[in-house]
Amino acid sequence: MLIRKSQDIDSSEITPKEVYLNRRRFIQEAALAATGLASAALTAELPGSRHANAGEKLQFRKSEIGIQGEDMTPFKDITTYNNFYEFGTDKSDPARYAHTLRTIPWTVSVEGHVKQDRIYDVESLLKMHPSLEERVYRMRCVEGWSMVIPWIGIPLASVIKAVQPTSKARYVAFQTLYDPKQLPGQRRAVLRWPYVEGLRMDEALHPLTILAVGLYGETLLNQNGAPIRLVVPWKYGFKSIKSIVKIRFVDREPPTSWNLAQPREYGFYSNVNPEVDHPRWSQARERRIGEFFKRRTLMFNGYADQVAGLYSGMDLRKYY
Amino acid sequence: MHERMPGGAAVAAACRLAAVPANRGQVALCSYRTEREALVLQCRLLSTDKPSVARFPKLAPTWAGLTAAWLLFLQQMKRHGIVSVKVLVWAACLAPLLRLVEKGLTGGLGANPIEFVTLSTGTWTLVLLLASLAVTPLRHLTGLPWLVRLRRPIGIFAFFYGSLHLITYVWLDKFFDPGEIVNDVLRRPFITAGFLAYLLLVPLAATSTAGAIRRMGGKRWQKLHRLVYVSAVAGVLHFWWKVKADIREPMLYASVLAVLLGYRLAASVRRWLAAAKSGR
What we know:
The structure holds two protein chains of two kinds. Chain A is built from nine helices and 13 strands. The N and C termini of chain A lie far apart (67 Å). In chain A, strands 1, 4, 5, 8, 9, 10, 12 and 13 form an eight-stranded mixed sheet that branches. In chain A, strands 3-2-11-6-7 form a five-stranded mixed sheet. By secondary structure, chain A is α+β, with helices and mostly antiparallel strands. Chain A has one domain (15-260): Oxidoreductase, molybdopterin-binding domain (Sulfite Oxidase, Chain A, domain 2, Alpha-Beta Complex), CATH 3.90.420. By secondary structure, chain B is an all-alpha fold. Chain B has two domains: 1-80, no CATH class; 109-279. In chain B, 77% of the residues lie in helices and 1% in strands. Chain B is built from twelve helices and two strands. Chain B has a two-stranded antiparallel sheet. In chain B, a hairpin with a 2-residue loop joins strand 1 and strand 2 (26-27). In chain B, helix 5 runs antiparallel to helix 6, helix 5 runs parallel beside helix 12 (248-279) and helix 8 (189-206) runs antiparallel to helix 11 (227-242). The N and C termini of chain B lie far apart (51 Å). Chain A binds chain B through residues 73, 76-77, 80-81, 85, 89, 91-92, 143, 145, 190-191, 261-262, 279-282, 287, 289-290, 293-294, and chain B through 110-112, 114-115, 173, 175, 180, 183-184, 188-190, 241-242, 244-246.
């Protein structure tokens, strides 16, 4: 029997990945230069930046912060099983429809009680920390499933220190992009758009809290909240707001989307807590994606040693 | 006329297939009914260029598809008899299960297979429950008495998918933990509703045989089987209360159920009025 290898395309004819990715970026940057001179002025230094289009390799160092000894959830599951209602409410919708989101150019407005209101491109935010870090974190969804994800990002604290909030800043409010053309789920009022989230200042400054731009060593895919998102591993997943365009320092507890939708079911804090049930289901256990049996949910998603102190003296049943 | 409507061509094709005359989009089903009234009704139901359909040109292909399916269904009945139609119904009812098995074997159930199976079996329970409730109104509207013979298999399949749904919950979600299950049923309204919806189907499934109808007597049997209305309402509530924010789908089921129950209500009010009149 003859076994022949297909030789239709010589390997030397295949465009190397870097080349075609660069070409794609070149086209996008050309479009940027042609269409948005104003924003181009704000988003300096795109060429050769660490921040790039979805699915490109990133330079990072492995952080000592994070978990070890738990199997990471496969890339395919992390990128096909998502809650990102801006693209539809089915778990498979974001992977299917998120291609309409354009992440280059992208700017984040930092404003409120801060030394200077300013618009940053993602690259200049990332420069506020010496290097990108890989953090392997558990992610627990309020619906009762969980993953282990190797995020790439920088501590939010580094950004906060660099932009210098004033003494009035007690909370940080975040906002997702609002553009029904790019985020077609926003055409229906499933939630009040744009999606908003918030953290208390000490939560935002906590070393576990990061702004992520990638996972598994590559830039985020749109369905995971590209180009930049929050990751707060001891809180339910919906606190980790995606595709951020605004960070605002405020003096009072900011509104948050799920709390606005169902105040009795989703509180501002939304810390992972196996003892405080969601009114409609138990939070005592979770199904780790890829596992058959359920696991016990850990207090603060297993980060109690690091974060329990933030809430000492607080009644966690009241502040759920 | 067919050219104007996107779905017209499909209807024409269906008419050719089913060997019935088609005229200006009006589909005549004269060979199936003798009663003139029923015939006119069907023509009105199936016409694709009536104003209500014409107003929504996007729906025309769907409408034409439904029309075609209906015509083929009637053709099947005419040519091969009720047994062949029952085979079709069985095949349609088994398809969701076969699809699940196929997806399970090929890894197509996604990142959270147990959730997928739970949602899928729950959905098909509701769909078949509503389908079984649609049989009687459809029978009246079309004047096709034999449709009632499809009600039992559809109802039994609704119970079958409901059982799969419950087993998935008890086994794969709760791992037979009695404490947790009792706690859920008592304290979580959406589970209480779902559990009630299933419980009410049990006596109906148990008395679904011809022997049971004979033993109970038609009147009593019918009375008992009205429990299906309560079960369907509880089932829709179960779905509605479970959803986090996007209520489109439960709303669709609720609307269909409202139409099906509303039809019955209107019919019984009419009967009651007629009885009151003649009694005077």
